[in-house]
Amino acid sequence: MDKKSRLLTIGQFAAMHGINKKTLMWYDEIGLFKPAAVNPENGYRCYNYHQSPILETILLLRELDVSIQEIQDFMQNRSAGSLKSLLEDKIAELDLRITHLQAVRSTLYSHHRNMSTLLTMDLSEISIIERKARCLVTVPIDRETSFEEEVELITAETEKYRLGRLHDASYGSMIAVSSLLAGKYDEYSRLFIEIPFLPCQPDLHTAPGGRYLKAFHKGSFDRLPGRYEEIFAFAGAHGLTLHEFSYETGINENVVDRIEDYIVQIEIPVKG
Q1: Which three-class secondary structure state does DSSP give residue 115?
Q2: What are the beta bridge partners of residue 250?
Q3: In the predicted model, what is the mean pLDDT of residues 82-94?
Q4: Orientation angle between helical segments 68-76 and 52-63, nearest 10 degrees
Q5: For the chain, how long is the longest CA-to-CA vector?
Q6: pLDDT single digits (tens) 196-235
Q7: What is the pLDDT of residues 154-173, one digit of tens each?
Q8: pLDDT cut 70: percent of the chain above it
């Protein structure tokens, strides 16, 4: 007798697939997965080895959050083509979930890095760092753009890129180095959104890779021009030419309540 044709008890079959036998009983009751035989004397359900691939397919689909109704529809029209189509849809959904989780992980790592920086940083320090090129989503602003309008612009972009939640990205503002050198410290021209794993596209802004001058400012924005004067003095003393934009990012917004405690990270590309 073929061993694969031998009947297994519901307990044996459930244990073989790592599930509770009540799951098999429920699948039978709703007509999703029937036993190979039922003992007429005691009503015990029995299964055989040949049913394993079908059950594993059902369990895989359940793990992918496929609804019972979808699985029942598939089981009634089971074929290579229908399974291929169903799996393609679920793979696409899974890819989106993976991308989302990767973005959340990247955001958590960024917050963790910021908190580590806060615990060890010297606010007076101005340093030179290396930065990889990155593509940023930007929205134009000017002196007349109200806070409410800025919120609307950011919200529209998060919806466009299907971020779902604001914490899936990091945000900041940009001001041209030429404006800073001209003493126009309030001439911000863009807000930027840095979305983890966003592929570069022609309509995105590319923050160049290479050396950056990095500094911090704590407290009221009224005193920010003074910090920029220190930054440019440092650059001049070290023969550095700053260009393009200054990228400003708040790094402790989630742990402070007073503007006096707010810390802005400033990063400016160094030419050459």
Answers
A1: helix
A2: 264
A3: 88
A4: 140
A5: 95
A6: 777 888 889 999 999 999 999 999 889 999 999 999 999 9
A7: 888 877 776 655 555 788 99
A8: 96
H and E: helices and strands count for the chain = 8, 11
If you write DSSP's letter for every residue of 230-259 in order, what string do you get? HHHHHHHHTT--B-SEEEEEES-TTT--SG
Q: C-alpha dihedral over 145, 197, 250, 247, to 10 degrees?
A: -70
**CA dist 21 to 203, 258, 261, Å?**
55, 58, 58
pLDDT: is 64 or 114 the higher one? 64
Q: What is the pTM of this model?
A: 0.64
Beta bridge partners of 194: 170
Helices 52-63/80-120 angle, 10° precision: 40
DSSP characters for 128-158? EEEE--EEEEEEE--TT--HHHHHHHHHHHH
Per the listing, tokens 């000017």 go with 142
